[in-house]
Specification:
The protein is built from 12 helices and 7 strands. The chain is mainly alpha-helical. The strands form 3 sheets. The chain has a 3-stranded antiparallel sheet with strand order 1-2-7. The protein has a two-stranded antiparallel sheet with strand order 3-4. It has a two-stranded antiparallel sheet with strand order 5-6. A hairpin with a 2-residue loop joins strand 5 (about 260-265) and strand 6 (about 265-270). Helix 3 packs across helix 8 (about 275-300) and helix 8 crosses helix 10. The longest helix has about 35 residues, at about 20-55. It is globular and about 75 Å long.
Length: about 400
């Protein structure tokens, strides 16, 4: 039932899809979606027809064939008779390893350099400015080659550790720095609770998680006491106990021992080998990306009003405490978004590992496997899928963290 005050209902007309602002944006989006779908259909159909004309087809059965090549740096068991899929897995793990390590160290370098660029000490500030300008304006590939060349030219070879006339020796009889890489002791469990060593490490990670949860509960309790009484109880020893006691007990029960590298034959055996290509790639990505992160940190700190620093100083806080407790927590909302882009750049720039012989996913699947099998389309599609998935996961995790540190309005 209508009344005299109700506006008359307007009948829908096709012209409204163009001239009516309520529908025009939807019309343009629908047209764009249709055109995009047609483009993808045309490209896919053209690819299939060309492959059919050449007597080829898209198949991933080659992943089950023996790879036929060795990989020096690997995190899982692998030999030349393993499949191409196993070789690709080794490359994926190597890529994730160097990306993870570089993200951590680049963040440390960037935060330190960004904070020191704003130091009142003229010399320190200028040194950090020189670091930023030099490293971010020279391509990362050049830094990778420079660092790898220095390592192979400066560090001694394994034969120089041999005999009474040895010109080099191990550091603390535990670490060996050679031109082939760095050898460090490898931890393992002599009396683990599980037959599978991987399960023992899962138990260790679970212990770390429980220690972290206990430390968080202690800090939460201290915060509640501070809000109730105005005095924050001292929790240093309790937090240290929460971290160390479970760890030491777990190591005692599982029988933690160390395999020390030893010189046998022409090379070191035992322990963990961190290859020269991995070190060169890791360090180059860290110092190069750290220069960009330093600028992000500096911009984030300068985005905070100076009144925050003055108010904190008026309360008697020292400059270091002001930076850690007042400035940096507020600056994170400015630092995190560009930091996500830098983490993505590290992951994608790791594909330059082939320049120094580091077997990442680009070198294995996109290099040797592609050349041996001739399956260029399949290998490239898998490479694109991996980097796309890794980038989306990094963005998702960092966006969740960004949401957790943003300012909460009351």
């Amino acid at each position: 039932m209508t009344t005299l005050t109700d506006p008359p209902k307007e009948s829908f007309q096709l012209t409204m899809l163009i001239y009516d602002t309520r529908y025009r944006s939807l019309t343009f989006q629908a047209i764009a979606a249709i055109v995009l779908a047609l483009c993808f259909w045309f490209l896919g159909n053209n690819l299939i027809q060309n492959l059919r004309a050449a007597g080829l087809n898209i198949s991933y059965s080659f992943l089950g064939d023996p790879a036929g090549y060795d990989i020096n740096q690997r995190l899982v068991e692998y030999d030349s008779q393993s499949s191409h899929a196993k070789a690709a897995l080794v490359g994926v793990l190597n890529t994730l390893l160097v990306a993870f390590l570089a993200c951590i160290t680049a963040t440390i370098f960037g935060v330190i350099a960004g904070v020191l660029r704003l130091s009142n000490n003229w010399l320190v500030s200028k040194l950090m400015a020189v670091y930023v300008e030099i490293f971010r304006n020279i391509p990362v590939l050049i830094w990778i080659i420079i660092i790898f060349t220095i390592m192979t030219a400066v560090l001694p070879g394994p034969r120089e550790f041999r005999g009474d006339n040895a010109t080099s020796s191990m550091v603390l009889d535990l670490f060996a720095f050679t031109n082939r890489g760095v050898y460090i002791p490898m931890p393992f469990f002599d009396s683990g609770l599980f037959a599978n060593p991987a399960m023992n490490w899962v138990l260790v990670l679970l212990g770390f998680a429980l220690s972290w949860f206990a430390a968080r509960r202690i800090n939460t309790w201290a915060t509640a006491q501070q809000e109730a009484t105005g005095v924050r109880p001292k929790t240093l020893w309790m937090v240290l106990a929460a971290w160390l006691v479970p760890f030491l007990l777990l190591m005692l029960v599982m029988g933690l021992t160390w395999e020390v590298p030893e010189l046998k034959g022409f090379n070191f055996k035992g322990g963990i080998k961190i290859g020269g290509p991995l070190i060169a790639l890791w360090f180059a990505l860290s110092i190069y990306t750290g220069a960009f992160i330093a600028e992000n940190v500096r911009a984030g700190i300068q985005a905070i009003n100076k009144g925050q620093t003055e108010a904190a100083a008026a309360l008697g806080l020292r400059s270091g405490r002001i930076m850690n407790l007042v400035i940096l927590p507020q600056a994170l909302r400015v630092i995190i978004p560009p930091l996500i882009s830098q983490f993505l750049n590290i992951t994608k720039n790791s594909s330059l590992a082939i320049a120094v012989g580091y077997a990442d996913i680009t070198a294995t699947l996109g290099g040797i496997t592609l050349n041996q099998t001739g399956r260029a389309i399949e290998c490239v599609l898998l490479l694109m899928l991996f980097y796309l998935t890794a980038s989306l996961l990094i963005s998702m995790v960092m966006n969740v963290y960004n949401a957790s540190v943003k300012l909460k309005e009351r």
